[in-house]
Write a structure and sequence with these properties.
Elements lengths: L8 H12 L2 H4 L1 H9 L3 H25 L6 H9 L1 H38 L5 H20 L2 H26 L15 H11 L6 H6 L8 H30 L2 H6 L3 H10 L1 H26 L1 H8 L18 H14 L4 H29 L15 H17 L1 H20 L10 H10 L7 H13 L6 H8 L1 E5 L3 E2 H16 L3 H14 L3 E3 L2 E2 L2 E4 L5 E13 L7 E10 L3 H14 L5 H7 L3 H9 L6
Parallel strand pairs: 1-6, 2-6, 4-7, 5-7
Antiparallel strand pairs: 3-4, 6-7
Helix pairs in contact: 1-8, 1-11, 1-14, 4-9, 4-11, 4-17, 4-18, 5-6, 5-17, 6-7, 6-14, 6-15, 6-16, 6-17, 6-19, 7-14, 7-16, 8-11, 8-14, 9-18, 11-13, 13-14, 15-16, 17-18, 17-19, 17-20, 18-19, 23-24
């Protein structure tokens, strides 16, 4: 069962922004300030800049392949199922850890509020249990439908962003610039390593990519929503962290788990602290909701590819949501809330950095493999420099996070590879773009057409293409690839032989009709293009033959060689469809890149795909 396309631009913006405006701004700054000092703002900006490089790659991949599972799907189709299995599982785990981080943040704020109101101490275990209960509530919300979860995100973001803007405007008047004259505890490298530590703050960009299959008009909505939300969030992070750093003393900031609320209490009074604490809770709700929603799509995608048991791919009949995958994700999040907070942050950040790195590699492979049906609606600018700088930056961040994070990432990767070895490799094998790249470099035949066929179906689903009679004819018609130059009469002889069996008309009759029609007037309609067409006897018959002549078909000494030929043969009662088919071909060949694509096709199926996916009115 297909997932329901319920998410619009505002939903995408809200899911992405809401997933970032949470613990990264309300809980994490104190821990980050202890490492980078007053330059913590620079760490957030640096992390945001590196996130932008990966985001551009993700936006391109998402518009080319808007499928559930997001970056897992792209990595599998570019690097193979072994890498895809590892990637899908570690990304699901990373998003689950980030959701656990948000839930712990909610529990921390609730604990502080309870302790202040009742002057009693709340045990640490109770706080963790509270986080697990909140996880169960979010699972139920998501099972009931993506649309409801998306609306919740919009409502929360419409409260959070204005509140933070008010905090910034009022707080600027209370900023003490002397706070920024203090040295960073670990110098420049401390600022850089802190950028890796806070990278988890930008994990929300991954979440909407995993929901791409449920987005309306993904080719336009996904990149616009992702780019807009990242710009807005980086600006808010910069302003809020700057104000907070300028208000709180360093010692207070370093030890605070609710720095924004404490700073608000200084220049806005007790009610300001309460208001920002409420906003923080809403931020945690928003991010946890988006995190669980996004993480659950990875086991769904893995099960569709038979890399994990099929039960994870079940879709609820009533709500059309992946309820089993949601329950499994909820179980992982519920267990994670009992881990150490710093362990959760470092593990989530290191794995999220890896996911961005893989996105950059996937774009390089997809483009350089020259897979014909890789047709993104949004192309990453400054290719390949954005991807190369991103890969180098992410590797450096992972190194700077520390040995513990590297070891943890290695354990996650080993676990994911173990799942592939003991389950996935016996059940699934897919063609991937890296094979096409190797094939292109070595000139060896390593691939078939299965990846192109899969991407063709993805494009049809993305663009809501409904097959019509013309499509059906093209899918079933004969396609010829003629390597040498050929005289037009010899081509007609070949075409008549191919069509005679399909139409039940003798070769000689068809050949005569083709020659007579050409003698009446040339069927060369444009440089490099000819559409020979004839009327045959009978009723309700129509067929098409597609041909490419690499070195050209010679129609006359006065015309240029023709490389693309479409032969139509139909009865008189099919005249209207004949005209529609002519119009369809005319629209398809208007693409300025048509001839280049046509001549570079690897095989007959690739030529057929150019016609099937060509832009035309239906």
């Amino acid at each position: 069962m297909k997932l329901k396309k319920d998410l619009k631009l505002l939903d995408v913006f809200a899911i992405t922004s809401g997933a970032m405006l949470s613990s990264g701004i309300f809980l994490l700054p104190g821990l980050a300030h202890a490492q980078a000092g007053p330059h913590v703002t620079v760490s957030y900006i640096l992390a945001g800049a590196l996130a932008a490089l990966g985001m551009l790659s993700q936006a391109e991949l998402a518009t080319a392949m808007p499928k559930s599972g997001g970056t897992y799907y792209y990595v599998t189709r570019s690097m193979g199922v072994a890498v895809g299995t590892v990637y899908g599982l570690i990304t699901m785990l990373a998003l689950s850890l980030k959701s656990a981080f948000e839930l712990i943040g909610m529990a921390v704020f609730a604990r502080i509020a309870i302790e202040s109101a009742f002057t009693t101490s709340v045990p640490e275990l109770y706080m963790r249990i509270m986080a697990a209960i909140l996880c169960a509530i979010f699972i139920m919300v998501n099972i009931r439908g993506t649309r409801g979860a998306g609306r919740l995100q919009v409502l929360l973001v419409m409260i959070i962003i204005p509140s933070l803007l008010v905090y910034t405007v009022l707080g600027l008047q209370a900023v003490d610039l002397n706070h920024f004259h203090l040295p960073s505890p670990a110098g420049v490298m401390g600022v850089v390593s802190t950028a890796g530590f806070v990278f988890v703050s930008y994990g929300g960009l991954l979440k909407v990519a995993s929901l791409a299959e449920e987005v309306r008009e993904p080719g336009r909505v996904l990149p616009l929503g992702m780019i807009t939300s990242l710009i807005v969030v980086v600006m808010i992070y910069t302003m809020v962290i700057f104000v907070t750093s300028g208000i709180l003393d360093a010692d207070v900031f370093n030890s605070s788990l609710m720095p924004v609320s404490e700073a608000a209490g200084i220049f806005m009074g007790p009610w300001g602290a309460v208001a920002l604490s409420i906003v923080a809770m809403l931020g945690f709700i928003s991010a946890a909701n988006a995190g669980i929603m996004g993480a659950s799509r990875y086991p769904l995608a893995l099960s569709r590819d038979m890399l994990i048991p099929g039960i994870f791919g079940r879709v609820n009949i009533r709500f059309r949501t992946p309820h089993v995958a949601l329950l499994a994700t909820g179980a992982v999040v519920a267990v994670s809330v009992f881990l150490d907070l710093e362990v959760i942050i470092k593990a989530a950040s290191s794995v999220l950095i890896l996911t961005y790195l893989f996105s950059c590699i996937a774009v390089l492979i997809m483009r350089e493999s020259r897979v014909q049906n890789y047709q993104p609606r949004f192309s990453s600018p400054m290719y390949p420099w954005v991807q190369i700088v991103g890969i180098l930056g992410y590797l450096f961040l992972i190194y700077e996070i520390g040995t513990g994070a590297l070891l943890m990432s290695a354990v996650f990767i080993a676990a994911g590879f173990g799942v592939y070895l003991f389950y996935g490799r016996f059940r699934a094998e897919k063609e991937y773009a890296l094979l096409h790249l190797i094939e292109r470099i070595t000139a060896r035949e390593l691939t078939g057409h299965s990846l192109e066929t899969e991407l063709k179906e993805v494009i049809r689903e993305r663009d809501d293409i409904v097959k019509d009679r013309f499509d059906q004819l093209i899918e079933e018609c004969r396609v010829l690839d003629i390597p040498d130059a050929i005289d037009i009469n010899d081509f007609f002889d070949l075409a008549a032989s191919e069509l005679s069996t399909r139409l039940g008309i003798s070769h000689d009759v068809l050949l005569r009709l083709l020659i007579e029609r050409e003698n009446e007037s040339s069927t060369v309609l444009a440089p490099g293009l000819a559409i020979p067409h004839i009327v045959i006897e009978g009723d309700h018959a129509f067929d098409i033959l597609i041909a490419r002549c690499r070195k050209g078909a010679v129609f006359s000494h006065d015309s240029n060689p023709v490389h693309a030929l479409f032969v139509f043969a139909g009865t008189r009662d099919e005249r209207n469809f004949h005209l529609r088919a002519l119009a369809a071909i005319a629209q398809i060949v208007q693409d300025p890149m048509f001839e280049k694509k046509w001549l570079s096709c690897k095989n007959c199926e690739a030529m057929r795909d150019i016609v099937l996916l060509g832009k035309r009115k239906r």
